Amino acid sequence: MVTPVRTFAGAPARREKVRRIFELFDADGDGALGRSELSALVAAVNPGVVFTADQLCSVLDAVFRSYAGAADADRLSLAGLLRSYDDGAGDVDRDFAALFPDLAPSPKPSPSPSPSPNGPLSPLASPIHEIAFDSTRAAVARLEALIKNRDGGFAKGLREIRANLDRSGAVEAASEGHVAIGRALFRARLLPDAVDCFRRAAELSPADPRAHFRLGTALSALDRPRDARRSLSAALETASADALRWQALLPQIRVNLGVVLEREGLLLAAAEHYRAAARLCPTHYRALKLLGSALCGAGEHLRAVAALEEALLLKPDFPDALCDLGAALHAAGERDRAAQCFDRALQLDAAHADAAFNLGGVFKDMGLYGPAVEAYGRALVSRPDHWAAELNRAAVLLGAGQPAAAKKALEEAYKRTKRVELYDAILYVKKHQRWLRLREGNGVDFAVVDPSAFKTADRRTTHARCLTDALCIRDIQKITRLGRIDANLLRREMGGRERVATKAELEGILRKLLHFLNVESFQEAMKVINEKILTILDATSSGKIDLSMFFAVVAPICTGPPENRKGVAFDFLSDNGGFNGRISKTDASIYLKYMRVIYFQNSQSFSDPVELGGQEEDRAKILFSEFVGIFDDADRGFGILPIVIKLEAMDNARNSRQACGVCKYQIGGLMFKEIACHFWLCSSCYSEHKVPSAFRKDEYVFKEYMIDNSR
Prior knowledge:
Residues 103-125 are annotated as: Disordered. Keywords: Calcium, TPR repeat. Residues 13-48 form the EF-hand domain. TPR repeats lie at residues 175-208, 319-352, 353-386. By secondary structure, the chain is mainly alpha-helical. The strands form five sheets. It has a four-stranded mixed β-sheet with strand order 4-12-9-10. Strands 1-2 form a two-stranded antiparallel ribbon. It is globular and about 95 Å long.
């Protein structure tokens, strides 16, 4: 992490200092610090501390856990060491001064001798140690001795040090002292004590961003992201008030705040902070990498590619950035370039499990099952507990026509991890094997026929082309979990808000609405919302969203009675809300165009929306009853809603006794029976116009059944 800092004449810049420290202890020159090399570094920069074997092991484990790559748990790269300094785990200026005394600047002399203990403390002009008062140096020295000889009296000794700082009489000295001993405690991984010290410093000097920043970093290390966010936000506010003075600290605050927001699932909000950090420090390649990763996770793949390419211009040998760039390119459909990125990442770090896993995904999508199996196997060598790699490896084995090998791989993985996903996959492979035996035994197969060949027996039977869109909408409901939110809750969240909001602000609103989701599930939901809905509503890429229109668009796919969903949508579009409000026909037309563009995947399902009237008529206001008539129109509105609601009702229904004539699974949900040939189709196969090969003819007539009606 590169941060602009004020340097002394003849003194190397911050990154150069870290590089020299790293190279001094990289005895074998392999580009990473192993346990023995890092042990030597820790001992050298803490000459006053004699670590026990257990203490040293604990320190090393903490550093490797936080800053080494998952694929190489006991090797610390230069980038990892740099991140550890940036996060406050060490003082690079202090360590450099201790290891290279001839290159470090000499501290300026104290302007006056130390006064009596009861008088004001004299500042020390030592920017290397970031210490300005004698009392701070004395407190740190005493604390380091306590840490060195840690015993039953450590807690009492720490309380005395803190009490002495509070009695010093000068608020600035006390605040600085608490920050300094907090940093020493943080380096010793005594995090709860470090938090107490940083919190006291923030209470004494609420306008000093350093105390808030250190407190936020320590809280994050304790896995308390919400508390960390509050402290880092306070640090950002106070530092921004005097941006010139804190220009070196601001990028670090932004990056750490972004990391904390990511841990809460707020990728778009995190991206704003990474972007701001990169603007403040254009050479901050880690901020650019994090920006690209967040954007990729939020579904903004082209912007992610731009950010990651910029990061790699600054640091070409950055395997994590290459891996993320490959993922963004793959999502954008550029498979060849994606494979090149993953291959380059593996050249730089042969044990990069994520790069190997993603390379397997590219090969799988290209139908190259052999190379895909090899790539997933490579990921498993680096990370044996990578259950997703095992699952995908089984999938490509199945695609390569090796169901027995796939089943064996899954069973071995299930023994190790007990993941329910693997158990479900084992059941699928077993069913697939039975399907293969059926196919080989009696020639069961299917054909995809022209959509015009599918006819309906009555008005109650859903047309196959309509069902395609309804199933897509149902998928959006399930992935985004909007189908679990009562439409009435949208009214409450909109109350008192400005009509226009940023995407990050909307993300925060949705996090409240979807509070029942874990971080991973919320990020998945937000990605689909961004890709399917926000990109349409923000066609100009301004980053701003009309909240009223957004809530009106999602209200019909929330839960609740159909008329209530329509009423909520009408409220957001009307001038004064409520069923007695009015909206113009033009606004109704715009709204329904958005609905059709966002939700209708099958262009043949409905005709394109048309204007609702002439110019004068479009400006006329309509009541809710008239809006419902337009909304329910199959040609101009969202007449597909009744089919979606039918699918919602079928989700919790038990499976029927009938098996689909194409996929051979027991049918759950809607069922369709061909009235002449008497074969059954599930919703999916019916929507895709699939029929068993044994029943090829020019026209098929289907009747729809609910599960209970099939018996």
